[in-house]
Write a structure and sequence with these properties.
Layout (H helix, E strand, L loop, with lengths): L1 E5 L6 H15 L3 E6 L13 E5 L13 H16 L3 E5 L1 H19 L5 E5 L2 H4 L8 H10 L2 E4 L2 H10 L6 E3 L15 H7 L5 E6 L8 H12 L4 E6 L5 H11 L5 E5 L4 H6 L3 E4 L8 H8 L4 E4 L4 H4 L6 E4 L4 H13 L1 H17 L2 H13 L4
Parallel strand pairs: 1-2, 1-4, 2-3, 4-5, 5-6, 6-7, 8-9, 8-11, 9-10, 11-12, 12-13
Helix pairs in contact: 2-3, 3-5, 8-9, 8-13, 11-14
The chain binds ligand GMT.
Amino acid sequence: MRIGIVCYPTFGGSGVLATELGKALADKGHFVHFITYREPVRLGGFNANIFYHEVRVPTYPLFDYPPYESALASTLVDVTLNNNLDLLHVHYAIPHASSAFMAQKILQKTQNRYIPFITTLHGTDITLVGRDKTYEPVVSFSINESDAITAVSDNLKEETLRSFKIDKPIEVIHNFVDVRRFQRKPIDAFRQVIAPNSEKILLHASNFRKIKRVEDVVRIFAEVRAQVPAKLLMVGDGPERHMAETMCRETGYCDDIRFLGKQEQMEDILAITDLFVLPSEYESFGLSALEAMAAGVPVISTDVGGLPEIIIEGQTGFMGRVGDVGTMGRRATELLKDPDMYEKFSKNALAQAKKFDLHNIVPQYEALYEQFIL
Ligand code: GMT
């Protein structure tokens, strides 16, 4: 198949998933065309079946807001025609689904050619941004005009049906992880630098937006650190980072917390990690938690959104209510203090991640695509 993938090329979960999907499809012999404004961060090395098309957004003095949506639609028309694409798969509804709809109509009218498009809903495109009145009519319309709609969790499907009038089925295809990629041996020198006295290592990775509640990560760490020698790694960057850094100073554990910024080699960082912490206000799925589990790292998280679909309470990690840093901190401490329990959780986490391995999930996308290929 010849598939066009549209996504945000950044470190966000939807971009990561879309890129990994494209790579997995290319490995299976499909031709994959990424159509984005920048090369996706996880794209990595050369693959003969992968093509990258940059969406150029020319600026003009009149444009306070350069019209990205139009530039994307035009590029989709061009790439579809010149590469004889079979279908478009857009990740994150805004503005990708409406651009795909526009491209579909242009191709129909001018070339008498029908290009199906599938929209995968990822989370904030529904739960935050999409619900906003400013976008809602366009989001509802373009989701409904998609040839197929998928959501990354049962919870996100329910949220979508609650917030929008959707007149066609939404198929749930859970996010996936390449488990093999996360079977790394810890780099001793790296562990030694981070935790020179064999302290436990906790990790949080996100885009540091409000919804991630990074202040709770620091509070949970403070609870743990009061009981167990430990270090906290904060990976990523975003609007709440400065606040989190200020908070660290207030806890008195500043020397034990390191902000690493954006990182591409998550498998190496996870290989030295003991516990992953994700106390979000909402997660449609929590791809970062699944990646941690694939590395055998138990997860301490909130019990929101799609997280209970991947984390098994009391077996692969512990979940607390939003803001309940006391419970999450206590559970994290118990786990780190009990080597037998930790060992069991680590094994369970890996076993659970294997259920979401790319070999189990990618065929679900292929089966869906096949329904639309003439
Ligand atoms: O919130 C993020 O980390 C970014 C965001 C995105 O769309 O790029 O992530 C959403 O999609 C991910 C991939 O499907 C999910 O794993 C995240 O849970 C989801 N984030 C939220 O729902 C807040």
